[in-house]
Amino acid sequence: MAQSMLLYWGSGSPPCWRVMIALEEKQLQGYKHKHLSFDKNEHKCEEVKALNPRVQFKKKNCCKCLYNESAFKSQGTRLIPDDPAEQALVYQRVFETNNLQQKMYDVAFYEWYVPEGERHESALKRNKESLIAELKLWDGYLEKMGKGSYLAGKNFTMADVVCFPVIAFFPRLHCPPERCPRLMEYYKMLKDRPSIKASWPPHWLEKPEGQDNLKNL
Amino acid sequence: MAQSMLLYWGSGSPPCWRVMIALEEKQLQGYKHKHLSFDKNEHKCEEVKALNPRVQFKKKNCCKCLYNESAFKSQGTRLIPDDPAEQALVYQRVFETNNLQQKMYDVAFYEWYVPEGERHESALKRNKESLIAELKLWDGYLEKMGKGSYLAGKNFTMADVVCFPVIAFFPRLHCPPERCPRLMEYYKMLKDRPSIKASWPPHWLEKPEGQDNLKNL
């Protein structure tokens, strides 16, 4: 089965990284893959467009993670618990990751998303406040769950698969650690997990320090 | 079980409406509920904040739908299919609904979200183009699936529960039907479904015509 898969991926893209972590956790290594360079716009080539009319990996890849979990339930790490209440918490964190990701992008990549003539200090300030509040919320989740906890409880789940690739941007882009001390402990606990280490973005390995987009948060 | 639930809800809010449709489909009527007026800011009261630090219903309620499906699998309509491929499509549409909703808000409620001094015709124009492309995508999904199809295939699923409350905004806010003819057929097919009719927003019943925010799309 793993051999019949073909994964198109971009280095550092959270949606792609998610799938790669999930494949590692489900012991589905050995899949074929094709690295697309975002710089060269290879992710917008006809080959990919034919597969994915959105030309964005976000939603589709989240579903690939869920598909793999459902099709290979008993293989590797169990990522979605059976208990309905535990399951609901996993899905809640999965859905909420979208908030954290969007708010991080709205600050870190503000100049990339907003054309020059439409930028406003007041808007960026609002985006920063919104991101700070969001980080506080996530830090509170971990605080409440206790030391050494994963995002949805005592076990590593789909919530961690989906959220870790977003959380990893914060230390990389120099977010002040005091904005989210629990998240930073969580990051340190997870960064050497085999599935995450094996799928670490190659260009992050080459250049471990990112730009300082989040320094003034 | 239904009797032990308490639902806080706002009329017309997609996240609330979703839960109400799902409860109907799962035959979990008879739950207690409390109607909160958005106009009076009742959704930001202490009672609700204590339950939901986000003071937004979006993500949490999506998970309530999934929780109910998981806890009451064999009761009422089966909303998540067992087959992994069918299941993946349902989740894909559920995740994608967020795109459609956000892009609709970015046009219909542009003036509400963006302070006066930060508004730009160029930004609104871009938002409109993005919404038109998104509608085309969804219309294409239905076109491909064939006449009388639901969003994820031949059966009504969680994809419809989650997406219908967003789709219902388009005719209400006077979106030109030629922007999404298949979606409008789908809307007509579903609007009298018992679960949807029973949970129709009361203030939409009182005032069936909304403002014309989407007229110039």
From TrEMBL, chains A, B:
The family database entries (Pfam families) matched by this protein are listed as: GST_C_3
Q: Which GO terms describe its biological process?
A: glutathione metabolic process; L-phenylalanine catabolic process
Q: Which InterPro entries match?
A: Glutathione-S-Trfase_C-like, Glutathione-S-Trfase_C_sf, GST_C, Thioredoxin-like_sf
What's a Gene Ontology MF term here? Answer: glutathione transferase activity
Q: Which domain of life is it from?
A: Eukaryota
CDD domains from the UniProt entry: GST_C_family (cd00299), GST_N_family (cd00570)
Q: Which GO terms describe its cellular component?
A: mitochondrion
Q: Which SUPFAM superfamilies match?
A: GST C-terminal domain-like (SSF47616), Thioredoxin-like (SSF52833)
Q: What are the residue boundaries of the GST C-terminal domain, all occurrences included?
A: 83-217
Spell out the protein name for this chain. Glutathione S-transferase A-like
Native organism taxonomy: Eukaryota, Metazoa, Chordata, Craniata, Vertebrata
